[in-house]
Specification:
- The structure is a single chain.
- 39% of the residues lie in helices and 23% in strands.
- A hairpin with a 2-residue loop joins β2 and β3.
- By secondary structure, it is an alpha/beta fold.
Length: 260
């Protein structure tokens, strides 16, 4: 079947209500230090929220997802051994490998992608510090990528956005035309492979994975993420994340109590 035929087949299945799944590899990027956290002995991905490391909260979300077949973590070299412990301690059966990160986020993602299984049809790239991602977000982004080839989580911008020039406002952006990009970002593996290696040849540097697909002419579907799907970047984010997790847990406990 031709590429266009495969896409038509995916779209038909979507309209008929069938959510076909493809072998999807999650690449969790956790190789950063987190300079905005200030001088800390522990990198942000290993800081604790409710007694569990940030990155483990992230890994557990992908472990639970029925759309994810395997997990590859990209980590700092000195932290690689920790993931064997995490796998055993938290029952991370889908975690197949932890690999050393590169000099940039873009390089780290490629190292993770190079470690996926030969069965990989789609790659789901996610920030290790974005630990509040839900099953619903993962499912929706994956499902849209299966149809369109590329899809990312995103949210509308609630703030008024200003352009700046030499410390003064130079214009106002119509916020109805922009969205804030999040992860996960999911791509057909052949598309990601093509754009990632072409970017190396062209010496193109980007800040997120969707930018690579955009740069080489691929359309990327925007999928609703969540304002709760925050990335841990500053100390106050740990407090926000803890509050959100506690609120979710209280809701779960309440539902279980009602069932009794």
């Amino acid at each position: 079947m031709t590429d266009s035929g495969k896409k038509i087949n995916r779209i038909f299945k979507a309209f008929t209500g069938e959510k076909k799944r493809y072998f999807t590899s999650a690449v969790i990027v956790a190789a950063g230090r987190g300079s905005r956290m200030g001088e800390t002995a522990v990198p942000k991905q290993l800081m604790l929220i409710n007694g569990i490391p940030v990155v483990v909260h992230t890994l557990l979300a992908f472990e639970r997802s029925e759309y994810i077949n395997e997990i590859i973590v990209v980590a700092r070299e000195e932290e690689l051994a920790l993931y064997d412990r995490f796998k055993a301690e938290y029952g991370l059966s889908k975690l197949v490998k932890a690999v050393k990160g590169g000099e940039s986020r873009q390089a780290s993602v490629l190292k993770g992608f190079q470690a996926v299984s030969e069965s990989c049809r789609f790659v789901c790239i996610h920030d290790g510090a974005r630990c509040l991602v839900t099953d619903e977000i993962i499912e929706n982004v994956c499902h849209n990528a299966y149809i369109h080839g590329c899809a990312i989580a995103s949210v509308p911008c609630s703030d008024t956005l200003k352009k700046e020039k030499q410390g003064f406002i130079s214009g106002t952006v119509d916020r109805s035309t922009v969205r804030a990009a999040q992860t996960p970002q999911v791509f057909d593996a052949d598309i990601y492979r093509a754009v990632a290696y072409t970017a190396i040849k062209d010496k193109k540097l980007v800040t997120d994975d969707a930018s690579l697909a955009e740069a080489y002419g691929f359309k990327v579907r925007l999928v609703d993420g969540s304002s709760e799907n925050i990335k841990i970047t500053q100390p106050v984010d740990l407090l926000f994340a803890e509050a959100i997790l506690n609120h979710r847990q209280a809701g779960t406990d309440g539902m279980q109590e009602e069932k009794r």
